[in-house]
Design a protein that fits this description.
The complex is a heterodimer of chains A (about 375) and B (about 325). Chain A has 15 helices and four strands. With about 375 residues, chain A is mainly α. In chain B, strands 1-11-10-4-9-8-7 form a seven-stranded mixed sheet, with helices on both faces. A four-stranded antiparallel sheet of chain B has the order 3-2-5-6. The relative contact order of chain B is 0.15. Classes of the chains: A mainly alpha (about 375), B alpha/beta (about 325). Chain A: It is found in: Cell membrane. Chain A: Pfam families: ABC2_membrane_3 (PF12698).
């Protein structure tokens, strides 16, 4: 295959895209508007160190309740809000404004924990609550044991304080918050990378429809050019646009917002594979649609819906189990899983091989189907 | 098919620039093209005429390699298109009826794109683009976006894109649709110049006068078959050599009409109005003095019109007047 015709198609297509001012706005400006505003709404920051909001309903005011509230408030990872009713608390957890909720009944040691089990922040909050409850329970048990052994209440309290001082030398560092998704720009940068790489690939599908409508592809096939060179040239043009979009978001978010993307090899593999998925989808849309006007009407909305399901528009914690499960039928959720995992220090490409495998399979399926269909359409046009 | 085995066939032993034989294409039960064949010598302009849906586009698509014929062969400068498409296509310059150009790019960038498709090296391409821009008269507008061009300018770039690689045969599919008279003249002048320089031309158009002006030979295709093929004179002769003569009379029209019917050479006569008659006469333009003399004493001729047979008359005669679209 001669490279010159392929490069000619790539150069012409890229030049066309650079002259599309609306397209450039959506590639160069919009992703960063979204990263900044959504990032600030989620709590600006580049790591997962933000405190987890936990609601507490205290139905009584006994010493256990007081001790537990104090312990929860002392926990460095929790932001405790006292609430008036269990219904309000459940509503907060369901809507995502609370990572977890705890109802402390009056005169009972049976606590009611409200949490979404598949939600990373929820699980992290649960872990922190467990630690606080365990500490209070340990004090209660120790006090009871001292009283049973014949100590006066004052002696029992003294023994417990002594035991607490001794156990304080053992530092228990709770790292369970790492299981939750990061917040701020650390979340919105990868989310918008996936969102805009896909959406802008969908948007440039319009140029492919236009090429078909103008008869450019037919005419190209009357040149001494192999059919597969034309297919490769068109596919490569779209892939380069997707990669350029991804590279721009990574570079600007790292430099301007201090986003840590993680292992370069892993990130390159995930982003490259996702760009192939986007390219396959763009060629499929560009082949199936009849007029260029249909592409912006169908492509970007489709990208937004898939982005919603994949957690690119808001934290996945807020979406619930069903939506998160549905999201994993599409590439964005797998891309988010992989990029968020890679952002954790010490994580390499080996940790995201399952996600990479799924994305690669999706890319192969979409690219294969789209190129076969595109090939048939361009031949049939003749 | 009306075959004209005359001396009009190119009397040369040179390999035809474009030759096809026995082309056939079928879509389901519909035979779009059947047994189409012709040859175009270098420096010869060949017209392909036909009503809409006659099979012109299918034929051209097979000639430029966009469609694979069910049977038949296409030879471009002696190279079999099916056996060696890359080499054969390199000898063809194809100008589609649509403006197949990128509107976001400039005229020069569009030409560069097509030049690179045809594998022209960078330096040679740059020089060739300048030559073609000069040929089509668009050097001044070369670096403005195609979207700002007039219809005629776009048509000229559309043609220019097919000339960059100096093809042996140029295939023009309705190249003047929707252009103003100045642009049409510029296009036809340019095409004639290229043919004069030895390029073979296959030209399709609905404008008979363009075919008559540019092409020395033409074929009329209908229902997928070539029904007539020859020079203009040969094609016109298919409907006879008789002229149509229309006269307006003043006086005793009835008597004058009887006298006109009796004139030698008049093969048909009809009253077309209270004072007008139409005659079909062999060599009608030469018969006019005799016709005027014949009616003297009964009437005087106040107006005359002689219509010679032309390609359009032949076309309508052979393909019928029924609307096809």
């Amino acid at each position: 295959m001669r490279p010159r015709p392929v490069l000619a198609l790539v150069a012409a297509n890229l030049r066309r895209h650079t002259r599309d001012r609306v397209g450039l706005f959506f590639m160069v400006v919009m992703p960063f508007v979204s990263i900044v505003f959504v990032g600030m709404a989620l709590g600006g920051g580049t790591t997962g160190s933000s405190r987890l909001p936990v609601g507490v309903v205290a139905e009584g005011s006994g010493p256990v309740t007081t001790a537990l509230l104090a312990e929860l408030r002392r926990h460095p990872d929790l932001e405790v809000t006292t609430m008036t009713s269990a219904a309000e608390l459940r509503s907060g957890v369901r809507e995502g404004s609370l990572a977890a909720g705890l109802v402390i009944p009056s005169g009972s040691t049976r606590l009611d924990l409200v949490v979404t089990e598949t939600n990373g922040s929820g699980m992290a909050a649960r872990s922190a609550i467990d630690v606080a409850v365990s500490k209070v329970a340990a004090v209660e048990e120790a006090t009871r044991a001292a009283r049973t052994a014949g100590a006066t209440p004052e002696q029992a309290a003294s023994y417990v304080r002594q035991a607490q001082a001794e156990s304080g030398r053992v530092a228990v560092k709770d790292t369970s918050t790492a299981a939750g998704d990061p917040r701020g720009f650390a979340y919105t940068a990868p989310a918008n990378l996936l969102l805009f790489t896909f959406i802008n690939s969908m948007a440039v599908a319009a140029a492919l429809v236009e090429s078909r409508r103008l008869g450019m592809l037919q005419r190209a096939l009357t040149a001494p050019v192999r059919h597969r060179s034309v297919l490769l040239g068109e596919a490569l043009s779209r892939l380069l646009v997707a990669l350029a979009q991804a590279a721009l978001i990574m570079a600007v978010s790292a430099l301007a917002f201090g986003v840590h993307w993680g292992d370069p090899l892993g990130v390159a593999a995930v982003v490259g594979t996702f760009a192939l998925v986007s390219t396959g989808a763009a060629i499929l849309v560009g082949t199936l649609l009849r007029t260029p006007d249909q592409a912006p009407a169908i492509g970007p909305p489709l990208g937004v819906v898939l982005g919603m399901l994949g957690g690119c528009l808001w934290p996945r914690e807020s979406s619930g189990d069903v939506l998160n499960a549905v999201g994993h039928l599409f590439p964005h959720a797998w891309g988010m899983d992989a990029l968020l995992k890679l952002a954790v220090p010490g994580t390499g490409i080996g940790a995201v091989l399952p996600q990479l495998g799924v994305l690669a399979a999706m890319a192969a399926l979409l690219l294969g189907a789209s190129l076969v269909l595109f090939g048939r359409r361009t031949r049939a046009l003749g | 098919m009306t075959t004209l085995e005359t001396a009009s066939a190119p009397a040369t032993t040179t390999t035809p620039a474009l030759a096809c034989r026995g082309l056939r294409k079928r879509y389901g039960d519909v035979v779009a093209v059947q047994d189409v064949g012709f040859a175009i010598a270098p420096g010869q302009a060949y017209g392909l005429l036909g009503p809409n849906g006659a099979g012109k586009t299918t034929t051209i698509s097979m000639l430029v390699g966009l469609l694979r014929p069910d049977s038949g062969t296409v030879l471009v400068g002696g190279t079999d298109l099916a056996a060696d498409p890359t080499r054969a296509k390199a000898k063809i310059g194809y100008v589609p009826q649509e403006i197949a150009l990128y509107p976001e790019l400039t005229g020069r960038e569009n030409l560069r794109f097509f030049g690179r498709l045809f594998g022209l090296p960078r330096r040679r391409l740059a020089a060739r683009i300048d030559e073609v821009l000069d040929l089509i008269g668009l050097t001044d507008r070369a670096d403005t976006k195609l979207g700002t061009y007039s219809g005629g300018m776009k048509r000229r770039i559309n043609i220019g894109a097919a000339l960059l690689h100096r093809p042996e045969v140029l295939i023009l599919d309705e190249p003047t649709v929707g252009v103003d008279p100045q642009s049409r003249k510029a296009i036809l002048d340019g095409v004639e110049r290229l043919v004069g320089e030895g390029m073979a031309l296959l030209y399709t158009s609905h404008y008979m006068e363009e075919i008559e002006r540019v092409c020395e030979r033409a074929a009329i295709i209908d229902h997928g078959r070539i029904i007539a093929d020859g020079t203009r004179r040969e094609l016109v002769s298919l409907v006879g050599t008789a002229d149509k003569v229309e006269l307006v009379l003043d006086g005793d029209v009835e008597t004058a009409f009887a006298k006109l019917r009796a004139v030698e050479g008049v093969v048909e006569a009809a009253r077309t109005g209270a004072s007008s008659v139409r005659l079909i006469a062999e060599g009608g333009r030469y018969l006019l003095p005799a016709l005027i003399t014949a009616v003297e004493g009964s009437a005087t001729v106040t107006a005359t019109q002689v219509i010679e047979p032309d390609l359009e008359a032949t076309f309508l005669h052979l393909t019928g007047s029924t609307l096809r679209d």
